[in-house]
Each structure stands twice: as C-alpha cells, then as structure tokens.
C-alpha cells in the first residue's frame, strides 16, 4: 500500500478512535482536576514517613490514585520530600503515581476493559513498592542533592506541567478546578493525539506478524522491548493506551502490554531530564534503569500468569 492509498485509511482510523476516546478523556481529566483541587498536600504527606510496611503500601496506593502524570508527580514528590517524607516513601509515591491515576484507570476501562483496570492498578502499586524499597539500597548516597532541595524553596519544573504547588488566592474553587482542567488538557492532549496517530499508522501499515515477533513473546525479551519503547517519546500515563490497544489487536502479548503501560510514562528522555534536576544525572539514570528492570520483571510475571 503506497502513501496515497494509506493516508485516507489512517485518517479514518484516527477519526474513529478519537470520537470513541475523546469524550471519556475529557471526563477523566475533569474528575482529575476535581481531585487535584480538593485533596491537599498535607493529607498526602501523612503517608510519606514511617517504618511500617503498611505506610509504604498506603503511600503507593495514594500515589497511584493522584490525578497527575510524571511531570506533575515530580514537583509534588519534591515538595513532600522537603516536608519530611523519607526517600523510600517518596519514590514509592512518585513511581506509582507516574504509572497510573484515577483518570488513567477510567481510560483503561474504556479502551481495554475492566480486567485491565485491576491489573494496571495492582502492577503500578507493586512497581511503586519495588522502586521505593530499592532506592534505600541503590540511591542511599543520593541525599546530597535531595537535602539541598530540602533547605530551599525550589520547585522542579517540567515544561507544560499542570501542577502548581502555590495555592490559588482570590479565586473560587470552580475557577481553580477549571484552570487545572485546562492545564491537564494542555499536558495530556498532544500526547493522546500522538498515540492515536501512531495507533492508526500501526493499524494500517504494520503487519501483525511484526508485532508478534517484537512483542508477542511471553518471555523477558518482549517485556524488555516494551519497557524501552517509550524512550524517544513523552507519553503521559494514559496517553499510550490507544497505541497499546492497537498493538494488542495486532498480536502483542499480555506481559509486554503490561510492561509498556507501566514503563512508557516514566522511561523517556524528558522524565530523565526532570528527575536529573532533582537527583543529579547519574542517580536519575540509575532510577530509570531500575524502572526498566522492574517493569520487565512485572511484564514477564504477568505474561506467565495469564
């Protein structure tokens, strides 16, 4: 199929998918804006310290439900670290929150079905726990930079980040929600469109046997390839779903799909840049390598169990 023949098909698939996804996408973003406005940092900060494993689990679950992607989670995690959160709780919260959120779970239900909602939430919480406990050993020498941040009123920012650590003053709650809603649309929408476009290209141009060769195995290789697929892009959590849905239809394995949904919001160049601002380049690289290893492991386990 040449380009002239393929383009109408790609545009048709793109349009059909957009009509199916965009209404729920907007609803999910609005729900996220409501939660973001009415759930305070001080409430979240209660779960960011302690030696009880239950606090780690709670911190990871709370992080997984916060309606922010990586670009919003990093400034929030830095702020909570400055307010006394320890390193393992902070990274557990950050990692689970970067991988999933309530709006993303709604989109997952819409595109992939209810079973994937439970799988994604559970896998994201486990990923947060693995990352949190691993940082105690792997990044124990890092607090130099984190401690510097702890003594300054500095915010790590990412271009387009929708989260603002400074509360709005003189504005009604409705205006605040509306502002957050528009901010999250600006953050998510471009990457949802990119994912829809890639999904349409895959649907029309990529033979199914290539997807099966790359991602169809129930082995570690397929999950590893899926975990590093997001490096050239910056997919906010949830924006990758149209692409994952199309890859599953083309023969992608259950394990690689799990690994891809967990990894691509975190394992990418922009995330490396913003985490490096917080920790420094070498620890940030170590963190991303850990995420690749853990998502590959979780994808492999998921593939073996299903």
Automatic annotation (TrEMBL):
Principal location: membrane
Keyword annotations: Cell membrane, Membrane, Transmembrane, Transmembrane helix
Topology relative to the membrane: Multi-pass membrane protein
UniProt keyword Metal-binding, yes or no: no
Record's keyword annotation contains Methyltransferase: no
InterPro entries (alphabetical): DUF318, UPF0718
Sequence intervals crossing the membrane: 18-35, 55-79, 91-112, 118-139, 188-211, 256-279, 285-305
Intracellular or extracellular location(s): Cell membrane
Cited Pfam families: ArsP_1 (PF03773)
Any one cellular-component term (Gene Ontology): plasma membrane
UniProt similarity note: Belongs to the UPF0718 family.
Protein name, entry field: Permease
Organism of this sequence: Eiseniibacteriota bacterium
Upper classification of the organism: Bacteria, Candidatus Eiseniibacteriota
